[in-house]
């Protein structure tokens, strides 16, 4: 365990994803060739860091980060000996949160920058020594952050769930207007193959899933039934009657082939607040399908959603790797922002056998909702195998 990450009581009110910070710290140690060494990262509040700041630097008030290289304590060469304890990094989450707000980045983004800064101190660098060293240290910090951002997220502690959307089984059925194939039966096969949830979208035009499907699924789904729906009066009444395990509110247009963009929570605030309040009264958790956008996340929190589902469509549809990377960073950053604001985070739309693993590796995401790719593959290899193959990607 090369990094000991602890959260002091003063910082425990922040929604901190220690899995993410631990994963990033371990990656950084490995990347700088000190994967065998150990370091401690201690997250605290302003009051605690002020105490250490006064005691060890004779400075009043809080600071963002303090580093205590073990090498200096024990008069060893800068950076210490390989396989050794590098030292302690103390970070004030209060100060980091203020700095994150000013810079317009997530708290976890700022904490990561401070961990990098602290690590370089542990290795013997010191920006207070000279202007030249300050410049070199800043360059190295930026480079390490870029390297980390470009690395594939890996080694997550928790695994997201796979919820399979079976709408397109119903699409095939409706193409003939007969009883088969049955999405209820398909849902059972998905669960037997390991899916942790079933999703269906009861559209107002009933183009695929029918009322009968949702009613039967409510009785047969053993994992979790997530009902996707528009905040439309008729569908709200059905949801309250059927009582799914959760609902996901999506925008709906008659002419679209599939859900096109995220719901504009800001423009629909009043209606959403009312719908969510009714669902909460009935103890049905609500997720809102939104684009990865900071303002929509904040609005989702304000209208009382429990979850947001981040729209992964633009990331999946990207036509070149640069664009795909840009879209992925947006999802990563939005997932952190949503998590930090107290929302639970799901993601979905357009995910397939190439694009899923990277999103699944983001530690703040709880569940992926995937339909079309699995059902398309199932046509060729069978539903059981298609679900198992996707599960293997989700579970890394
Ligand atoms: N999430 C939402 C909100 C959706 O509307 C859909 C499509 O029904 C999905 C996830 C699944 O998307 P796909 O079928 O592209 O996997």
Describe the structure.
This protein is of the alpha/beta class and 396 residues long. It has 2 domains: 3-151, Metalloproteases ("zincins"), catalytic domain (Collagenase (Catalytic Domain), 3-Layer(aba) Sandwich), CATH 3.40.390; 161-395, Aldolase class I (TIM Barrel, Alpha-Beta Barrel). Helix content is 48%, strand content 16%. The chain contains 17 helices and 12 strands. It has helices spanning 18-31, 46-57, 70-73, 93-103, 107-122, 131-150, 167-176, 183-192, 211-220, 233-242, 269-281, 294-302, 313-317, 321-340, 356-360, 372-381, 383-394, and strands at 3-7, 38-44, 65-69, 85-92, 161-165, 197-201, 225-229, 246-249, 286-290, 307-311, 344-348, 367-370. The strands form 2 sheets. It has an 8-stranded parallel barrel, surrounded by 8 helices. A 4-stranded mixed sheet has the order 1-2-4-3, with helices on both faces. Helix 1 (18-31) runs parallel beside helix 5 (107-122) and helix 8 runs parallel beside helix 9 (211-220). Mean pLDDT is 92; it is low at 152-157. Bound molecules: pyridoxine-5'-phosphate. Residues 165, 167, 201, 228, 248, 250, 258-259, 289, 309, 348-351, 369-373 line the site of pyridoxine-5'-phosphate.
- What is the H level of CATH, i.e. the homologous superfamily of the largest domain? Aldolase class I
Number of domains: 2
SS field, number of helical segments? 17
Order of helices and strands: EHEHEHEHHHEHHEHEHEHEHEHHEHEHH
Q: What structural class results from the helix and strand content? A: alpha/beta
Q: How much helix, percentage-wise, in residues?
A: 40-55%
CATH architecture level-2 label of the largest domain: Alpha-Beta Barrel
Strand arrangement, largest sheet? Answer: 5-6-7-8-9-10-11-12
């Amino acid at each position: 365990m090369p990094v000991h990450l602890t959260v002091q009581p003063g910082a425990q009110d922040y929604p901190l994803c220690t899995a993410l910070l631990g994963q990033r710290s371990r990656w950084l140690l490995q990347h700088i060739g000190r994967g065998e060494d150990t370091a401690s990262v201690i997250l605290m509040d302003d009051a605690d860091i002020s105490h250490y700041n006064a005691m060890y630097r004779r400075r009043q008030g809080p600071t963002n980060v303090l580093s205590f290289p073990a090498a200096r304590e024990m008069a060893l060469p800068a950076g210490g000996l390989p396989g050794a304890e590098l030292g302690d990094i103390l970070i004030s989450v209060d100060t980091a949160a203020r700095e994150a707000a000013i810079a317009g980045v997530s708290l976890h983004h700022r904490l990561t920058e401070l961990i990098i800064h602290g690590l370089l101190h542990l290795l013997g660098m010191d920006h207070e020594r000279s202007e030249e060293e300050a410049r070199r240290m800043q360059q190295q910090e930026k480079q390490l952050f870029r390297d980390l951002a470009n690395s594939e997220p890996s080694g997550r502690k928790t695994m997201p769930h796979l919820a399979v959307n079976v709408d397109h089984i119903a699409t095939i059925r409706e193409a003939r207007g007969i009883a088969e194939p049955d999405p209820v039966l398909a849902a059972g096969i998905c669960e037997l193959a390991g899916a942790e949830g079933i999703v269906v979208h009861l559209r107002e035009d009933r183009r695929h899933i029918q009322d009968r499907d949702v009613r039967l699924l409510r009785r047969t789904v053993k994992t979790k039934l997530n009902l996707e729906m528009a905040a439309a009066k008729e569908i709200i009444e059905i949801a309250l009657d059927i009582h799914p395990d959760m609902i996901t509110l999506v925008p709906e247009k008659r002419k679209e082939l599939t859900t096109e963009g995220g719901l504009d929570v800001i423009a629909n605030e009043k209606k959403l607040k009312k719908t969510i309040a009714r669902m909460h009264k009935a103890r049905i958790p609500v997720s809102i399908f939104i684009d990865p956008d900071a303002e929509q996340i904040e609005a989702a929190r304000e209208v009382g959603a429990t979850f947001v589902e981040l729209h992964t469509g633009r990331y999946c549809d990207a036509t070149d790797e640069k664009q795909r990377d840009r879209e992925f960073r947006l999802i990563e950053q939005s997932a952190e922002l949503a998590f930090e604001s107290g929302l639970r985070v799901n993601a979905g739309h357009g995910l397939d056998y190439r694009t899923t693993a990277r999103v699944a590796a983001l530690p703040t995401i709880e569940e992926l909702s995937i339909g079309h790719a699995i059902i398309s593959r199932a046509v060729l290899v069978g539903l059981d195998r298609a679900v198992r193959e996707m599960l293997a990607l989700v579970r890394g």
